[in-house]
Amino acid sequence: MPTDPPDAPDDAANPLLASLQRAVEATPDDVALRLHLADLLVEAARGGEAVAHLAAVLQRDPGSSRARELMATALAPPAPAAPAEPDPTARPSGFDWQAAESDLGEVVAPMFAESSAQESEVAAYDVEGSRITLADVGGMKEVKKRLNAAFLAPMRNAELRQMYRKSLRGGLLLYGPPGVGKTFIARALAGELGAGFMTVSMADVLDMYVGNSEKNVHELFETARASAPVVLFLDEVDSIGHKRSRMHSDHMRSTVNQLLLELDSVASDNEGVFVLAATNHPWDVDAALRRPGRLDRTLLVLPPDLEARLAIWESHLRERPVAGIDVKKLAKATDGYTGADIAHLVESAAEIALLEAAESGTVRMIGQADIEAALRELRPSVGPWFETARNVALFANDDGSYDELLTYLRKHRKL
Amino acid sequence: MSDPRLQRVGDLLELRRHAEARAVLQPLLAERPDDPGLHGLLAQALLGEGDHAGALAAANRVVALAPDDEWGHRIAAVTLDRMGQHLEATHAAAEAVRRAPLSWQTHKVYAQVAIDARSMGRDARAAAQRAVQLAPTEADAHFVMGLVAHRLSDDQTAVAAYRRALQIDPQHATALHNLTMLESGLRLGRSAQGLGAALRLAPDDELMRGNVDVLAARFVRRLYFAALLAFVVGLAVALAGGPDGGPTLLSVLVAAALVLGGGGYTLALARSIPVGIRRYVSGRLLRDRFLLLNVVLTASMTIAALVCCLVPGGAGWGLLLLQPIGLANVAAFVWAVTRRR
C-alpha cells in the first residue's frame, strides 16, 4: 500500500493548504473546493491525504475525470526501491532536499551558476554496482545460453581462452522490441561478471556544439577504462551510429567516427571494459559499428517466455493487495506481451480496483477479473515492431544477420 | 550549431520512423510553439504517419508563421496531392516556386504534383527538367524526371532518368523499383529480382510489397492457364484414342511436355526469385484464399491432364473429372470478377 512520505510537511508549513483544509471542513459538500485541495495535496506529494478528499469528490460526482486522474496519481505505487549498492551521490536521509529546492527555487538564487553553453552538458558518468545476476532473470533460457556462449564462457575461462586463442575483442549488440528487458539483462550480466555497470543513452551524448558530442563519447570511454572492470551499456545505439549513408550532418558523422575509434581502442588496449549496446532498430545501426572487433555479436531479446512471464507477473503483483490471482493462467494468456506491457496491465488492474474502491467507499483487493478486464483492453505493444522486423528479416537478410529472428517469426507464424 | 534533438528528428524522418520523430518534436514544439521549422518537421512526420489532415494543418501553420518561406507551401502541396486535391496541390507548389524559383526542390515538388493533376503533363515535364538543370547531381531531381516521363509513357527518357538517379545514389529504392517495373515487363523472374533488390533497401515500403503481391497473382494466373490448357489438350488427346484406349505415343509426349515444360518453368522461376520474395509469396499463397484456390485448381488440372494422358481409360477419367473441375473453374471465375469489383 502506498504511504505518505515520512517527512511530509505539516500544514503549518503551508498556510494555503491549512486554510483550504479549514474551508473544506466548513463546506464539506463543495466539490470544486475539495478537488482543488486534493490537487494541491497531490502536488505537495501528500497523496495519502488527497485520497480521502478525492473519494469524497467521487462519491458526490462519480463522473469527474479530474478526480479519477488525481486519484490514480495519488495512489500510484511508491517509487522503486533504492539500488542495492549505496549511491555515492545520494543525500543523507532526514532532510528532503528536493522539496526544499522546489520550495526555495524562486526565492534563493541557485548555488552554482549554469555552465557556459560551450561546455559539454554530459560532464560525468556514474558507475553503479549491480547485485542482480542472470539467475534473477526469470526464464529466457535461450538468451542466457547465448550470452554464456558469446560472452561469459570466454571471459571466465582465461586458460581455455588462451588455449583456443579466443580474443575478447568486440562487444555485444542486444536487439529486440522495446520493453523486453534489454537493460535488465545487461545489468544482470554486469552482476554476473562482478563488474561495475555504466549505462548511457546515446541520444544523451549528443550535444549541439560541434566537438562536444565527440568529447562526450571520449569522456564516457575514459570513465569506463578508469572504472574497469565495468560493463559499458550503450542504449539506443542507433541514435548515434545509424546508417552513415543516410546521415547528412558532418557533426554526426564525426561523433560516429569517435565512437568507432573508442570501440577499436577498447578492443586493442583496454582490458576489463565490456561493451554492450542495445537497440530496437538494429537495421538502422551503422554497418561500421557491427564490424569484427566492434559490436560484432548480436543477441535477439524477445518478449518473455512462459517462465519469464510467470516471474514478471509475480514480481509486479508482490507488493500489491491481491486476492485469487491465477498467475499461471495470466502468464499463459500474455504470450507476446513484454515485461513493460505486463507492468502496464497490473497498473491498469490496480486502477480499476482503486476507482471502484474510491467510488464505493469500500476497500477491496485486486482480483483476477480486474486483470482480465485490463487484458481485454491492452494488446501487446510489440505488434508494429514485428511488422518492420518481419519485412527486414524477409527482404534484407542476405548476410543472415536476422536468421534468429526469422526462425522465431516462422515458429510463431508471424511471417 | 544545431540542436541535437532537431538532428535526431531529421534522422528519424529519413529512417521513416515518423512516430518517433513526432515524439521527439512534441517537447520542442512546447518550448518553441512559433518556430515554423518545427511545424514543418511535424508536418513531415504526420504525413509519413498518414495523418493528412494533421499534416496539412501543420503545413498551414508554417505558411502562417513564415509566409515568405517556400517550405510551408511545398509541404502543403505534397499533402494536398496525397489527399487527392491535385489542383490545390499545384497551386501550393506554384506558390513555392514563385517564392524560391532557384530552388530545385520547389520545381521537383511542382513536377511531382502536376503529373497527378489532369492535363498538366507538359508543365510537369518542364518543372522536372528545370529541377534537373538546377541540381544535376541530385538523385531526386533525376528521379522526378523519370517519374514524369514514365507517367507520360516516354519510357526511353524515364529509363535514362532512373538510371542516372541510381548512378548518383545506388540506394535510391524507389528509382530501382520503378526502373524494374519499367524494364522487366512480363518477365516475372526479372521483376522479382528487381523488387527483391528494391525491398532490400526499403523493406517497409508498402507499395513495393503490393507489387510483389501483384507478381504472385500473375505467377499463379500463368500457371493456372497453363494447367487449364494442359487439361483440355490432355483430354482431347485421350478422347482421340477412344474412351477405353490406353496411352498413345502422342499422349505420352503431351504428358512429358507438361511435366518437363510446366515443372521446369516453375522450378526455374522459383530458383531465380530472391529467397525473401519466395518466402513472402509462399506465405501470401497460404493466407490469400483466392490464390490458394487457384493453386489447388492448378494442381488438380495438372493431375487430371496426366491421368488423361497416362492412365488406361484416361478419357473416361477425364470426362468424369470434367464436371467438378469445370464447376470449380466457374466458381473461381465468379470469385475473380467479384473480387476485382
Automatic annotation (TrEMBL), chain A:
It comes from the Bacteria. One of its GO terms (molecular function) is ATP binding. SUPFAM superfamilies: P-loop containing nucleoside triphosphate hydrolases, TPR-like. InterPro entries: AAA+_ATPase, AAA_ATPase_domain, AAA_lid_3, ATPase_AAA_core, ATPase_AAA_CS, P-loop_NTPase, TPR-like_helical_dom_sf. Residues 77-96 are annotated as: Disordered. Residues 168-305 form the AAA+ ATPase domain. The keyword Nucleotide-binding applies. It holds the Pfam family AAA. Keywords: ATP-binding, Nucleotide-binding. Residues 77-86 have a biased composition (Pro residues). Belongs to the AAA ATPase family. This is ATP-binding protein. The lineage of its organism: Bacteria, Bacillati, Actinomycetota, Actinomycetes, Propionibacteriales.
UniProtKB/TrEMBL annotation, chain B:
The keyword Disulfide bond does not apply. It holds the Pfam family TPR_19. TPR repeats lie at residues 139-172. The chain crosses the membrane at residues 223-242, 248-270, 291-313, 319-338. Keywords: Membrane, Repeat, TPR repeat, Transmembrane, Transmembrane helix. InterPro entries: TPR-like_helical_dom_sf (IPR011990), TPR_rpt (IPR019734), Ycf3 (IPR050498). This is Tetratricopeptide repeat protein. It comes from Nocardioides nanhaiensis.
